[in-house]
Write a structure and sequence with these properties.
This protein has about 625 residues and is mostly beta strands. About 10% of the residues lie in helices and about 50% in strands. The chain contains nine helices and 27 strands. The protein has a 17-stranded antiparallel beta sheet that branches. The longest helix has 21 residues. It is elongated.
Length: about 625
């Protein structure tokens, strides 16, 4: 368990620190269920403010974002809806540009995934049962090496790998029934009828029916769900540790017709060769996700519709025009028309629209770590990664539905994302006397290809439309790290990364991110009750750019100004301590986005258009305070 608090008045911070340390230490002494600990790298590195969480999949939790809710200080996880495909929004000390997604960067086993992948799409790529641990990088230290995509923090996901010592077969199944809770309290049919009779006009009374329909009960269901996971791990031929798994998820949503089926598989090989001079990490992952997406407007319509009316009507007009579903209509010139101002039949919205989403994904990466025979202090590492995602969306809406009455809709869209990465590093690490040095230089090539098309038409083919889009982004980057530790107590570090984006504005296509840090291990060695006490400070800047081509009109109808590039500054400092089994962290941070850009309206005649991109100001999170403590 942990306690977190943020406070802005400096006069009370110290007293709050002391009180919280005493209170939380007492609570943790009685607690046995927390599995969160703070980690700091003991090798040649600066102190990195990160939180580490082992994954305990208790209950029916199907994605990593759900497992993080309420578990990590400084990390806010909010649900985007109640559907199994809704996903979550994750915020890590976020101060985001208007043109930034605000999402943290996901790094899966060392491979950064592009920020354009939504959480729900990523959740379909990996089973929670395959995750060993999650590490969250909150500030610039440790995140700069990933570039400007890590501006909003980093979530590093480490998956399970084989055991060299023994062979394991594990099977886990979780079955659940989910129900809608805290439904909105609306009038029953008898209460509604009584109110209209007492207060309504004659016309309103005439609209009352003879049914007693609870519309919320009509749209919700008891949602059945099953999550099944099989894994096999061991050491093949006593030389190739492996981990293989397959996971099947079948989950209904609480709204009728809402459903998701997910099948994923993974294989990870981690052999070591040449007396551990060469280490390989080969990771293969693939999956298929099929779901039916519901029209969630059924919820608001169920709250507003007349409860004295039936779900279906036996009258001929309803059967001929709306497949039997009752709708509010009127007759003009002998034709039946929908009343556009009246609520629509919510059950019809669920059953007369078939919106299916099918996705295929594949990921492969190879990580090579070679310690040079002739110079063992030097490592050469290479990472080659490939990720693809193909999403197809098919929508068929009946021509007898309320949304597309007498027209119908047939829509098909496809999105294909292919990302490739190649990263090459030379690492030199040495130790002599009380001195430790660590130097890393590297080059990375990141290529992203995106293509999509969209086609829709009415049932008669009269109203047809189509569009297509394709883009390619190439981001080569160079980066370096220099770190020094003296006497295992004082450490200094500097990290920097420069990257080029061919989709950025041509006048300034290079983005630079830099961080410097210092930490002091006050005690050095364990001193009785206090195992460790460290102070740290780091300061970093992230350059940020966005795709100007999204905003440039191709017929040159306007002139775009060139304001200063946006930059995010991070300052973090604090204390990290360990008291026997209790680990704590008192952290202050400042995060500021400067030269923030936005489009503003300008007077007519001053440009070829009536808006212009300008620098509008800054956003700052000042002296936020976070205290956390954990039992290990």
């Amino acid at each position: 368990m942990f306690i977190q608090i943020k406070y802005r008045k400096p006069q009370l911070r110290f007293l709050l620190c002391v009180a919280l340390v005493l209170l939380n230490s007492y609570l943790l002494a009685e607690s046995k269920d927390s599995v969160i600990v703070n980690k700091s790298n003991e090798s040649c590195t600066m102190y990195v403010n990160k939180t580490y969480r082992q994954i305990d999949n208790d209950g029916f939790i199907t994605s990593f974002d759900q497992a993080l809710k309420g578990k990590l200080s400084g990390v806010r996880v909010g649900s985007l809806g109640g559907s199994p495909m809704s996903g979550s929004n994750i915020d890590i000390r976020n101060v985001a540009s208007y043109f930034s997604s605000g999402k943290p960067l996901i790094v899966l086993d060392g491979v950064p995934l592009e920020n354009n992948v939504s959480w729900s799409a990523f959740a379909s790529q990996i089973s929670l049962n395959d995750i060993e641990s999650i590490i969250v990088l909150k500030d610039a230290a440790g995140a700069v090496i990933y570039g400007f995509n890590a501006n909003n923090g980093v979530i590093e996901i480490v998956t399970k790998k084989g055991n060299k010592e023994k062979f394991n077969i594990n099977f886990r199944t979780v079955n659940a029934v989910q129900q809608a809770s805290n439904k909105d309290n609306v009038l029953s049919s008898s209460q509604f009828r009584q109110h209209i009779i007492e207060s309504g006009s004659a016309e309103q009374i005439g609209l009352l029916g003879n049914s007693t329909t609870n519309w919320t009960d009509e749209i919700y269901q008891n949602a059945l769900a099953t999550d099944n996971h099989l894994s096999v791990s061991g050491n093949f031929l006593q030389s190739i540790p492996f981990y293989a798994s397959v996971n099947y998820l079948n989950q209904d949503g609480i709204l009728k017709t809402d459903k998701v089926n997910k099948l994923t598989g993974s294989l990870r090989l981690t052999p070591t060769l040449w007396n551990e001079y060469l280490k390989l990490d080969i990771n293969l992952r693939a999956g298929k996700n099929d779901s039916r997406v519901v029209n969630q407007n059924a919820i608001s319509n169920a709250m507003a519709i007349n409860p004295t009316l039936p779900v279906k009507s036996s009258e001929t007009w309803a059967a001929d025009n709306f497949e039997g579903y009752w709708q509010s209509t009127y007759i003009r010139d002998g034709h039946i028309y929908l009343n556009s101002l009246a609520p629509k039949n919510p059950v019809g919205l669920l059953f007369q629209e078939n919106n299916t989403l099918n996705s295929l994904h594949a990921q492969m990466h190879i990580n090579v770590d070679y310690k040079l025979h002739f110079f063992p202090n030097v490592h050469f590492t290479m990472l080659l990664g490939y990720t693809s995602r193909n999403i197809t969306n098919n929508v068929i809406v009946s021509d007898k539905s309320s949304n597309y009455y007498q027209m119908g809709l047939i829509q098909e869209s496809n999105i294909l994302n292919i990302n490739t990465i190649g990263q090459y590093n030379l690492i030199y690490e040495t130790k002599f006397g009380k001195n430790q040095f660590y130097v890393r230089v590297g080059y990375e090539s990141n290529k992203q290809s995106n293509s999509s098309y969209d086609y829709n038409k009415s049932f008669d083919g009269v109203n047809a439309d189509s569009s297509a889009f394709a883009s390619k982004i190439i981001r080569p980057a160079i980066f370096s790290s220099i770190k020094y530790i003296y006497n295992k107590k004082f450490s200094f570090a500097l990290e920097s990364r420069k990257e080029l984006n061919n989709m950025l504005e041509s006048s300034n296509p290079i983005v630079t991110s830099t961080v410097g840090g210092f930490s002091w291990n006050v005690l050095g060695e364990s001193q009785g009750v206090i195992n460790a006490l460290r102070t740290f400070v780091n300061y970093g800047t992230f350059g940020y750019q966005y795709n100007f081509q999204n905003y440039v009109n191709t017929n040159a109808s306007m002139i775009i100004s060139r304001p200063k590039p946006e930059t995010t500054k991070h300052l973090s400092y604090g204390i990290n301590f360990e008291l026997n089994r209790i680990t704590g962290n008192i952290n202050f941070y400042n995060k500021e986005l400067i030269n923030m850009r936005d489009w503003i309206n300008i007077p007519k005649g001053t440009n070829f258009n009536t808006y212009q991109l300008v620098t509008i100001g800054s956003i700052k999170s000042i002296s936020s305070y976070t205290y956390s403590s954990f039992i290990t």
